[in-house]
Design brief:
This protein is mostly helical. The chain has six helices and two strands; from the N terminus they run ααααααββ. Helix content is 47%, strand content 2%. The structure holds zinc ion (2 copies). One zinc ion binds next to loops.
Length: 165
């Protein structure tokens, strides 16, 4: 999973909002906050390079945080989770707890069906498109088995050796 490929998960609208926010924040610093900071040692007296760096670099944190929110939205969608709910949690739960929870609780990525190449969500043992068996499933209740199981975690059926995942 390369970093640039993961970046493509972020919706275009998130980038637009992020860079508009960056431009607005930078303009506010440049035209209002810095000229207002008069007095000894005030930002007004900083060298040009220092004032430019402050006005252009500080708002980058805004781009970073909006990119993370956008990533969670796009990533939740491709994993078959609820993108709106997770994005709102990431934005509104304080101290980044929503973001941390998302990365702890997110479902695995869907896998490609070997027969028809449809993407199958991690919780499904069978391909919804062609019916091929994508992951080991319980012979009794039919739910997806997880690696290392000797008994089905859902219904308790003992799994024959050849059916263990
Ligand atoms: Zn299929
Ligand atoms: Zn079962």
């Amino acid at each position: 999973m390369s970093f640039t490929r993961e970046l493509r998960v972020i919706p275009r609208i998130a980038w637009i909002v992020a860079w508009l926010g960056w431009a607005g924040f930078a303009a506010t610093l440049w035209f209002a906050a810095i000229p207002d900071d008069t007095g000894p040692g005030g930002m007004v007296n900083w060298p040009l390079a220092g004032r430019l760096a402050f006005a252009l670099l500080l708002p980058l944190f805004l781009v970073g945080i909006i990119a993370v929110w956008g990533y969670i939205c796009g990533d939740a969608k491709r994993r078959g989770m609820r993108p709106v709910m997770w994005t709102l949690l990431a934005i509104f739960v304080p101290y980044a707890i929503g973001i941390i929870l998302y990365f702890i609780l997110r479902d695995p990525l869907p896998t490609e069906c070997p027969a028809c190449h449809t993407l199958v969500l991690a919780r499904f043992p069978f391909c919804p498109h062609c019916g091929a068996n994508v992951r080991a499933s319980c012979p009794q209740c039919g739910r997806t088995l997880e690696p290392g199981w000797v008994n089905c975690g859902y219904c308790g059926t003992r799994l024959p050796a050849h059916q263990r995942p």
